[in-house]
Amino acid sequence: MRINQLIERLERERTLEREELIELLSPSLPGEAAAMLRQKAREVTDRVFGNRVRIRGLIEVTNVCRNNCYYCGLRKSNRTLRRYTLTPDRILECCAKGYDAGFRTFVLQGGENPAMTRRDVVEIVESIKRDYPDVAVTLSLGEWERDDYAAFRQAGADRYLLRHETRDSGHYSRLHPPEMSLTHRLQCLEWLKETGFQTGTGIMVGAPGQTAANIATDLLYMAGLKPEMIGIGPFIPNGSTPFAGEKSGSVELTIRLISMLRLMFPGANIPATTALATLSPGRGRVEGLLAGANVVMPNLSPPEVRADYALYDNKAAWGIEAAEGISRLADELRRAGLEITKEKGDFENV
Ligand code: SAH
Ligand code: SF4
Model-level pTM? Predict the structure, then answer.
């Protein structure tokens, strides 16, 4: 069957022609083809990582943001949100808790908070690296200039997550106000690569206005960038944004994309994201992992601010989605034949 051959070629050549990618993204892809993608992706994941799932502790350092992305609950025009910024001491307390629980990567994520300077970020990275020399620090703090990224790297930050969101400029302007620029975002990704970060990018699946052709463009862009990490999750509306009335993205398509990305990037760190777990409670994480993901990022933010980091509605941040639920998460993964690993989990080229 032609589709099966496409999947075999995607595995072998790690890319396909644009039209072929679009075919694999079609809503009418036969169930057997989707199953074959999942199975091949799981085989590759197993070959590279075994049954080991890497864990990252997610610390949501601030929900203040100067931007106005139409999809995101942290956008500056959302007046319904109680805004917070964690002090360095509180961030270090999260790290202490996480380190005890076995985390060896901390991900500092937040809005683009104008009050958070380059110096602030450098200092917190330095403190974490001083107190915990054996951990990796991942930053996910949006767009900066090249010098800033170089300073973060110099301070010891290892990895940076910055989803490109969409590689199509028409689609980009459907998701962002005119003052934001796709060119700058892509430039940032180049800088991150140049300054030596393990660089993560990605998209939301089913974002308003997204077509299969857009996603194919995203995949081809990523094939050129060669990211070390890829974050994809379904779009989920937030009731206090211009996209309040939009539909959520498809869990099925998200899973299919995870599998396609695993075939394209065998060594990449690909999380089963919180958004996937939110839309498919109790199953999303494991399904993502069995379809090619190799990372989970439990929430390590102070419990009293978790509800305020409201990217989208009903965001999962409790129970097995939280760092304090790690032993229950481990049990659930074990039932699926997977095992949490406490290794640092840097990217390795395969
Ligand atoms: N400010 C930083 C990091 C925080 S947002 C940045 O924008 O890069 C982190 C990610 O959350 C974004 O890249 C986006 O892809 C995702 N996100 C935001 N709103 C979302 C929504 N409504 N549904 C699903 N994912 C969303
Ligand atoms: Fe700010 Fe990031 Fe949300 Fe955009 S997606 S509003 S940059 S936090």
Answer: 0.98
